[in-house]
Amino acid sequence: xxxxxxxxxxxxxxxxxxxxxxxxxxxxxxxxxxxxxxxxxxxxxxxxxxxxxxxxxxxxxxxxxxxxxxxxxxxxxxxxxxxxxxxxxxxxxxxxxxxxxxxxxxxxxxxxxxxxxxxxxxxxxxxxxxxxxxxxxxxxxxxxxxxxxxxxxxxxxxxxxxxxxxxxxxxxxxxxxxxxxxxxxxxxxxxxxxxxxxxxxxxxxxxxxxxxxxxxxxxxxxxxxxxxxxxxxxxxxxxxxxxxxxxxxxxxxxxxxxx
Length: 259
What we know:
Helix content: 25-40%
Number of helices: 5
Number of strands: 10
Structural class: alpha+beta
Strand content: 15-25%
Largest sheet: 5 strands, mixed
Shape: globular
Order of helices and strands: HEHEEEEEEHHHEEE
Mean pLDDT: 82
């Protein structure tokens, strides 16, 4: 709904977050962030703006260090809460997760995780803020993971090119999800499940069909041989095209094509 580019001009993350969230001030939105943006300062500012804000965080952003306890077993968690309603929770999941929120209470919930050697997922205790984070941020994290598998991104100095590559990757992922949904509903009895890699390969093949001169390809567009007077003295097999067609220049040949 809103974004800002980090131009590395000295602007702090808090100032960038303020500029991003200011249009949603006092409109009742709930915002989730990753550990680059969730700080005590932003939690309090969002609370004043009546914006629910929560997510993973870092100890350098105000997370209480006394909660850190790496002896916790999976499913165990500890919490602290301020007088003005800011919650900090340290949760042992697959790893150790630090969470902060300005609208959650220290209530326990359940998440389901795969365990080695078991076919079904196992229930695991978690703070409600962790349960909500998994439910609502899971799609974003999965999108980033899938985007990193086969990304088109290239390093460059122009930030808008990076934004273009991100949009291109995200569009490919969305197209793949639609493709999977359509395949499942149109062919419910087939066992074949499309994979992301196969989908990308098929899209690339469709976009890179070789246009052979003198044939109908790509939405019935006819590509005619180009006349080049300097190349009329070719000999041997130079007259043959990839499909054995006669490629010798004709006097009445013209350049271009029609649809």
